[in-house]
Amino acid sequence: MTQAIKEESLYGAALRRMQDKTDSPSWIKRLRESALERFEETGFPTVDQEDWKYTNVAPIARSDFAPASPAGVAEISGEAIRPYAYAESSQSSLVFVNGAYQSQFSTLAALPEGVVVAPLSEALTGAHEPVLREYLARAINAETDGFAALNTAFAGQHGAFIYLPTGAQVETPIHLLFLATESEQPLAVFPRVLIVAERESAATVIEDYQTTDEAAYFTNAAVEVFVKENARVVHYKVQHESDQAFHIAATHAELERSSVYDLTTITLGARLSRHGINIKLAHEGAECWVDGLYLVGDGQHADTHSLIDHIAPHCPSHQLYKGILDGKSRAVFNGKVFVHKDARQTDAMQTNKNLLLSREARIDTKPQLEIFNDDVKCAHGATVGQLEEEELFYLASRGLHPELARNLLTYGFAEELVEKIKIESIKKQLDEAILNRLHARLEA
Amino acid sequence: MLEIKDLHATVDDKEILRGVSLTVKRGEVHAIMGPNGSGKSTLAKVLAGHPSYEVISGEVLFDGKNLLELDPDERAREGVFLAFQYPVELPGVSNAQFLRLAYNEKQKHLGEEELDPLEFKDLLAERAKIVEMDAGLMSRSVNEGFSGGEKKRNEILQMAVLEPELAVLDETDSGLDIDALRIVSEGVNRLRGPDNAIILVTHYQRLLNYIVPDFVHVLSKGRIVRSGGKELALELEEKGYDWLKEASDEQPSAANA
Fold first, then answer.
1. Among all residues of chain B, which has the CA nearest to that of A442?
2. Domain that holds residue A172
3. Which of A21, A170, A248, B123 is 20 to 30 A from A231, alpha carbon to alpha carbon?
4. B136-152: buried (b, 16+ CB within 10 Å) or exposed (e) per residue?
5. DSSP state of A107
6. Of B50, B92, B102, the CB nearest to A399
């Protein structure tokens, strides 16, 4: 307990320092303060809680992470940033280094008029402040859990605001790069992203966590997405943090009538990662895809908890999560599909498939359906397996060395998700990550 | 080229091959026929090194080397090829990628030049003609969603790409309609040459109308009970396999001596 108290006061002191420096509106200051109070009451979740029983976050609570400064020009060259840029987003990207917005590396030239993509800190004092006041912390707030409370306490310090006015069509994907670099002390970064897509708008957003450093740091992210009638948001979350890092993230989306939300998550990095997903199909005809690939190796732990909440009738949801576990790694998949009483004609499909490449790897998978309406079509399933002997023999009989055969089959397992990715730069990055991880000799 | 001497093999502790002996020379095509359960497919899989089959005694020499000491992938690189009775589906692995990897593994083994995807595409297009294979199937996952005939043609395409010294075709004719059988057989005939050898494992004489063997062997209860020329296949067609019931209980025939 003494640990926890020390920790909380550290975050509290940092917040008070930041509060004094910024000229944010009073409502956000109050939001932060009450969130901090809530966090100081609840603390971090523990393994006694059902939702956290497989993921022990005590190492985060025990560490002295210093909340990163919300501003400041990073000591990093354009050359060093370049490998993390995506050609598709060369004119539509925001770059944050250790949480702080870097205008010198950011460019928004490709955005149509009226579309807002801005660091939250700037947006809070800009023309869209009323939109922020209406939506910020509506889906993720101090009541969600300890991490959400802590993120909310720092809301607006790190992160971005994206606003698509009615009918806006953004062709180029919007890239939000959260880059971790070397720092004097282990940092805590609190990315907060708010996306509001008004009626009949459409955009693709890449939420991207990368690192230049193999250090330990703590990312606590929260992303809220509001998709209005007939709007369409395609969202990629790429988590390629340092293998020593802690990454706790929440993604909550609320979908209105006939809107589409398509989320693809790629989990490659972090020593411990947890992604909480909550999709509310709140109005008729809304449709979502929630897909992901986690690729973990020795010493890594990746946890995905998702809730697809069918509130309204006639909503299809599609979920495919695939995991590849190697070495002494562990993954958790807990996917709940909840069909409310009024959600007739729900069409929900959920699949989780896992490939264990080592005897020491462990997966806990739990797909769950809770249905309170008879007029629905729901299917779910989970598989855990090793590579098939017959497939390995087939490849061997064609002269492929056993290691190459294993790599090729593993790659094939991931392919279903790689194929879904429409952005070549992400696809290439993922290909490389898979191949590097597998030490494969496949090219092109 | 291939010498099988008194080969005994088991699967799940059950002895399936009970003393098979066979000699195959370069340029020859041998047909191995026999009823279901006679050990035909077991022989094919043992030659390729399938891990579920255990050789308990006997010897297999391939170009003088002890084949049984080699792992399946080593055998393949040495030039042994098995066309599967039931080709395996490999979801997510493209046919072109798979074939190029296999081709390059062999080139590397021979100390010859490996091909990049573009160079290999040309080679593949040329070989695909041998089995009248649709180019569209090359970018698809190996055998996934292929018809029975396409799977078998894909096996022969792999053979055409890898150019093995010894090809063992395990019931490649089963499940094929007459057009597919013709295409597959013509493909095999084009690959047949003075420097390689082919073992055809088949239940039916029909295939041998298209691929005419130099020798026919009849396998029954794990032994070769008769050997002869191509006319033996016709005799089998006429008489069926019933006569084997008596024959296989006797001592193995001359082929095994």
1. B101
2. 2-283
3. A248
4. ebbebbbbbebeebbbb
5. B
6. B102
Distance from CA of B234 to the nearest CA of A (A): 32
Do A252 and A395 lie in one domain? The reply is: no
From chain B, pick out residues whose CB is under 8 angstroms from the CB of A412. Answer: 90-93, 141
In a 13 Å sphere around the CA of B83, the CA atoms on its Cβ side amount to 32
Q: A285 and A311 in contact (C-beta within 8 Å)? A: no
Residues A76 and A181 sit within 8 Å (Cβ to Cβ): yes
CA of B163 vs chain A CAs: smallest distance (Å): 11
ipTM summary value: 0.94
Number of domains in chain A: 2
Q: Please give the pLDDT value at position A178.
A: 98
Distance CA A435, CA A356 (A): 16
DSSP-assigned beta bridge partners for residue B122: none
Residues B104 and B120: their CA atoms lie apart, in Å, by 9
- Of A391, A402, A444, nearest to B73 by CB-CB distance is A402
Mutate to test the interface with B, among A395, A431, A435 (most CBs of B within 10 A): A395
| B90: chain A residues, CB-CB within 8 Å | 391, 394-395, 408-409, 412
CATH level 3 topology of B2-256: Rossmann fold (3.40.50)
Structure tokens at A55: 């993921």
Over residues A335-358, the pLDDT tens digits come to 999 999 999 999 999 999 999 999
The answer to whether position A271 is within a domain reads yes
When pLDDT is cut at 50, 70 and 90, the band that residue B254 belongs to is very low
Q: For the beta carbon of residue A56, count every other beta carbon within 10 angstroms.
A: 14
CB contact under 8 A, B162 and A409: no
- Length of chain B equals 257
Record: contact B91-A411, CB cut-off 8 A: no
The reported pTM is 0.86
Q: Do B98 and A408 count as a contact with CB atoms less than 8 A apart?
A: yes
Mutate to test the interface with A, among B47, B73, B100, B165 (most CBs of A within 10 A): B73
Residues A184 and A46 in one domain: yes
Residues in A touching B81 (Cβ below 8 Å): 397-398
* Alpha-carbon gap, residue B89 to A331, rounded angstroms: 27
- Is residue A266 included in any domain, yes or no? yes
Cβ-Cβ contacts under 8 Å for A330 (sequence gap 6 or more): A54, A296, A300, A301, A302, A361, A362, A363, A364
pLDDT at B245: 67
Cα A421 from chain centroid (whole Å): 16
Regions in chain A scoring below 50 on pLDDT: 1-3, 5-7, 440-444
Q: Which of A283, A301, A329 is the endpoint of a domain?
A: A283
pLDDT of A165:
98
Residues of B with CB below 8 A from A442's CB? 97, 101
Reported as a single tens digit per residue, the pLDDT across A195-243 is: 999 999 999 999 999 999 898 999 999 999 999 999 999 999 999 999 9
CB-CB neighbors (< 8 A) of A393 in chain B: 50-51, 72, 88
C-alpha distance from A410 to closest chain B C-alpha (Å):
9
Give a yes or no: residue A58 inside a domain. Answer: yes
Which comes out higher in pLDDT, residue A435 or B192? B192
The answer as to whether A365 is a domain residue is no
